[in-house]
Structure formats: C-alpha cells, structure tokens
Amino acid sequence: QVQLVESGGGLVQPGGSLRLSCAASGRTFIIKAMGWFRQAPGKEREFVAAITWTGTSTVYAGSVEGRFTISKDNAKDTVNLEMNSLKPEETAVYYCAANTGLGLTPRRNHYGYWGQGTQVTVNS
C-alpha cells in the first residue's frame, strides 16, 4: 500500500505564492503518476495538476496553467506544487493522490490513494 502526506498549506494574500509538498511512502514502486486535486466548500473535487512517477511528463488544469508548477524529487519520493499568483477563488483543501493503474490522467477515479489534505486560504 501507499501512504501520502501533504504539507505546506496556509494563509496567503491574493497574488501571493505557496509551495505544497506530498511525501509518498510504502510501496512507492507501484505508483505510475501523482496528482493534485482541490475541493472548495460546497463544490466538487477538481483536478489541478499531475506528473508521472518518473517526472518526465506533466498535465495541468487550464485554470492554473502558467501559474502552477508540479515537480518531483526522486531522491525524496516527494511531489511539489508551486502555486503563484493565487486567487481568492482558489481557497480550498488541496489533496495529493497516487495513481497505480492508468498512469498520467486528470480523471480522479483513476487515483486510488489519497492524502489527508492541506488547507489553502487566499484572502487579505
């Protein structure tokens, strides 16, 4: 099995930046891709970004493309999400997820392992 732990959330002003991290442990060798999702109060969980476990390919939601960057530190089995120019509408709980089946995809049903989430609040 795989365990995922997110960190780095907090309060940030509009236009500010935050870096989230997701540490993977356990049977990490079965992971094909890692993804970041977010869920605001009263809304469905939505895709943000994903990266292959090898770190060679990435995909982004159109709403964050150009502002967010997903990356992987192979030595630490950690995936990061650098978020820039944050907007108040992006206040949400951000979740890290692992895909051990299909691979790189924005479809959340393909991600079988999830972290506990970390709160990101964008407000003055």
Give a written overview of the molecule.
The chain is 0% helix and 50% strand. The protein has strands at 2-7, 10-12, 18-26, 33-39, 46-52, 58-60, 68-73, 78-83, 92-99, 113-114, 118-122. Strand 5 and strand 6 form a beta hairpin. The relative contact order is 0.32.
Question: What's the overall average pLDDT, rounded?
Answer: 96
User: Radius of gyration, rounded?
Assistant: 13 Å
Structural class: mainly beta
What is the N-to-C order of secondary-structure elements (H for helix, E for strand)? EEEEEEEEEEE
Portion in helices = under 10%
Separation of the first and last Cα atoms: 40 Å
Structural shape: globular
Count every helix, treating DSSP H or I runs of 4 or more residues as helices: 0
Q: How much of the sequence is in beta strands?
A: over 45%
| Low confidence ranges | none
Sheet bearing the most strands, described? 7 strands, mixed
Q: How many strand elements?
A: 11
Itemize the secondary structure elements and their pairings.
Layout lengths: L1 E6 L2 E3 L5 E9 L6 E7 L6 E7 L5 E3 L7 E6 L4 E6 L8 E8 L13 E2 L3 E5 L2
Parallel strand pairs: 2-11
Antiparallel strand pairs: 1-3, 3-8, 4-5, 4-9, 5-6, 7-8, 9-10, 9-11
